[in-house]
Design goal:
Structural class: alpha/beta
Radius of gyration: 18 Å
Oligomer: single chain
Largest sheet: 4 strands, mixed
Order of helices and strands: EHHEEHEEEEEHHEH
Length: 217
Amino acid sequence: MKWFRRRKAEDVAPAHLPNAEEAAQRFWQRWFELVPVVSAALGDGEPHRVEDELKNLVSGLHPDLVFSLEQGHMAMYALVITGQEDPRLRPYTDAWINAAPPSDMVWEFHDSVPPVPDPTEVIVNLGQVRMRLGDYRVVAQVDGDVVDVAVYHPALAGLSDQHRQTMTFLPLDVTLGERLAGERLRRVETAELEPQGTISLLELRSLVRELAGQAER
């Protein structure tokens, strides 16, 4: 299950509080009211039932934040709220994760997209388009301690500009984790045609993790 949504300008949501700590406290108060309904909707395989409530809840924290509902690493489900490495939004995600309840068997919480164990098993549904991340191919060029990448998937050319951008970066984030991707990927491009000399997402993960380990020594 993968559900990833960015707030659109036409979406109606309550104004977020300028004080990040107050906004985080308000978020968690409302979350505890909603969580039984959210858990039930996910258990029934019908996340659309709580889409509007969650969209407004996250937008109340800050309208530029992005959120996703994931399968948890240790818990059943994970809620990810991220500013996509935007420094303007870091106070809000910091306050949110600092006020988060402890993880339990049902829910865990992340303030950046964590790497999934095997991204090649993830399938993303965009309307009628199903994109298997195992079908992605990447060209990676190492320059010192950073990497430039060109990302290819046969379905990317048929997507809208917004969805194409999302589906260029999302597989990198779930492969590397958002933090590592932000630290080690410099230039990211969408390839219209499959380039020569590509590697898989798992091979990219090995390359970038090795590069990061060498840089930290």
